[in-house]
Amino acid sequence: MKLSRRCFLSFSIGGAVGTALSPLPWKLTDDLSIWSQNWPWTPVPPDGESTYVDSTCMLCPGHCGIRVRKIDQRAVKIEGQENTVLNPGGGVCLLGLSGLQLLYSPTRVKGPLRKIKDDKGLPKWESISWSLAIEEVAKQLMDLRAQGRSHTVASLVGQEDGTVPQLLKRLIKAYGSPHFYHMPSVEDTQGAVLSLSQGIDGFVGLDVENADYILSFGSALLDGFGSPLRMMRAINRLKEQKGTLVQIEPRLSNTAAKADLWLAAKPGTEADLALGMAHVLINQRRFNEDFIYNHTEGFELFAVMVRNSYTPEAVAVTTGIDAATITQTALAFAAAKRPLAIFGHGKGQAPGSMREAAAVNALNALVGNINRPGGLHAMPAYDYIDWPAPFLDGIAYAGFNAKRVDGSGTPSVHRFFEAVDAAPEKLQLLMIAEANPSYSLTGCGKIKQAIKKIPFVVSFSSFMDETAMQADLILPNHLYLERWEDIPMRAGAVRQTVGLCRPVVAPQQNTQHLGDTVIQIAKALKGTVAQSFPWDNYYACLKQTMGNQWQDMNAKGAWEKEPAVVSPEPGFKTESGKLVMMNEPLKKILGAIVPAPEGDEKKFPLQLVAYDSIRLSSGYIGNPPFMNKVLPDTVLKGNEGFVELNPETAGKLGLAEGQSAILTTPHGQVKVRVHLNHGIMPGLLAMARGLGHTAYDGYLSGKGVNTNELIGPVEDPASGLDAAWGIQAILAKA
Amino acid sequence: MKQTQIHNEQPPRRYGMAIDVDKCTGCGSCMVACFSENNVPFKQDETDKLLSITWMRVYQLTNGKTFPHTEVAYLPRPCQHCAGQHEGHSPCVSVCPATATDYSADTGIVSQIYTRCFGCRYCMGACPYHARYFNWWDPVWPDGMEKYLSPNVSPRMRGVVEKCSFCFHRYQMARDKAYTEGGRKVQEAEYQTACAQACPAGAIVFGDLNDPSHAVNQIVKPDAHNHYKSGNPRAFRLLERLGTNTKVYYLSSREWVRRSGDNYRADEQPGMPGAAAQHG
User: Global pTM?
Assistant: First the structure.
């Protein structure tokens, strides 16, 4: 058959028109869209019975009450408890909400791991059983003990309160070592000042709920300071009741943005500002005379010091805030009914300057708002753990009384690692729980280097974090959603409360409760060490420790201690029974020369400070994917971190928004991008804390810069703790 | 019959929100509460904000002044659930060729049915608030994390548009419960969105704008006869002059914040109805 051209065209065109008019293309498009939406890999979450379990969040010191929604055995959502002791106002923060991403994270340690060398001599992880893991630690510990070197063993925990850290502390003591450390925080400095001025060994309570004038010395009250939810509620209450919030810091943080008055003092001059305000109060006799004359000692000495050295005019030059503003603010502070000055920069993850803490404490004393509603409260230390003293044999006794390697009065983690770095033979074994010093301590590069020199490092981390990567053995703890634990509240709490953390789901990995691990290690060590641990397991230990409170605590989720009877006497525990405004140690502290930020000002003309954001978790917990997702693209873009600076400074450097630059400090050099922000003091650079992880997975690793690698510790002359408040730096076009 | 009549006499529910910008601290908990409630996916890199799916997004506003007079404020933006000038005339609903998004006359909520959506993205073009997001990829949860997915919200697939639903599944659950308990009304506390529930600052208030017993009605004081314009001098809506008649109201005592809700001329007062409010 012959096909003519005409025939061919009519056939093709006719066919095309026919197909177009038929339902076929529409049906195919429809099918295609249905087909493309039904891939087997799009998960269909199984349905089941919906239940709620109440517990306590352990991701930050705030310890809010949480409610976890479950579908059968899966936890599907974390919500805040409403109107409970642990969460009176309801709500939950973004870190608390992201908890399930940590629970089900693929970067969790799946079970006990031992580091071995592969054929090529490269380190690799080998999965071992729990009994073998305990045996391995016990063997290392027994060998050292047999050699009379029990004092070369150390332990580092996130914080010391509660039965679990205390069990580890007990193990270290019964084993025979003086080396028990916790990660530094503002509470160390607050506690030291409390002890000096009031003679009380405990922690500072901040009655933010009842204050009507809050003078915050750089505390990130709305960005995660202390107990973040409590602070946010208190500030909103303050604003509703027409109270005043004054924020002192060089960068317009979220707290400064909500403040009634933002005072951008030069970083490092906050103590001078506080003493300048004290000068105004004393000079104009606007201090609380009843309190000062009846309940304090050393006032005259203090008054002489501030009169001579801290006139508003002199302080104006130091701080960059004009004298009139200093005077007005001081007078407004004194005129308030319940004024409260708060010490602690950012979230309070660094101890900070003793001088500043003492100066802020003096301001609170001058207005007499101490141990009174809306003021600063001296909270006694928790004493519900009343275990008998551990049994010490000869080795333990000698080891426990040996000199600590850091050699300072109060244990200092930074000095400890410096000593280890200088003389590695002094430390043979380190056990680390709920802490990530290789990432979260200032000058972490040096810390990493020191840890590398320790022959045997045991990590109890549930995550493959920077420190766990360096360990020789990992004995992973349960995550907070899988375990029992008592949680004594600090972080500015004004009533002693112990929250209960309870398992929401069964352990997801082959992990073990740290309390059980410690008890098992102790038992494996035999002798007096084993005798010091009479409990069968951690749960039995917890139940016995809580005693009569256990049932109540289990039912309510928390145990609140009865508030102390309010007496007209402030109840100071110093020798004279009065609050010490000034004595020899305090004179030394207040008169100390402020440690300048590290670095030569000529070589590094700018100053870099790290700032805290509630959208970034910068401590032991790595930022979960949800929190990275809400980071602004002016903090992180791709894998590049940003440094913030004033457009004026940027203009001088010839830098424009988003441009790449090289940031150099005495500790290192990084490539960053530039974000221009009018809300930052000219001459200053600021970077968010909490990025730049090298461990974890692609959701967190390699994103941005870890400020701790750029900023080193600065030793406080009084406490020996880290008082770093930035570092000198230089920024140049890339 | 009597019951039906009483029901008909009542105005329909009109769920809406009042967000106090002066209270919002910009923490972002509302965003994360929304992600975890609604199975919102995440990628390794979420820094390209045009591709980052956030049903609720917190914007930073600034007064543009130099140091030290700079001020910032935060503005959380869920779907605004526009009613338009005639009930149901939402910009997105009007353009959807697949009826994948629809306006519920019963609740005032703008829905999104993923399996109906074939990804033309007209609605995204029509939405003045950038409240809609397109799934350019299939969502991937890291190994094990799919365990926390809620069965109440379907995970979306590549090729569909998604947006804030005012946690409609929570309304369905509350409504079903109320129905089984003798057909009573859904209580204010029974139906709250995840963001309102989580907000640590108490900045988000959610409820029925037509029910005088609900806090949101008392705060907003909407005028039902004038496109639900708020009677609260602190309140404003976003791009109000477009006549979208949104159900999300913002509150601020600061004029520069209220001005940032629309592109006002220098001589214009914020919140003043422009031409569009008279003829939509």
Answer: 0.92
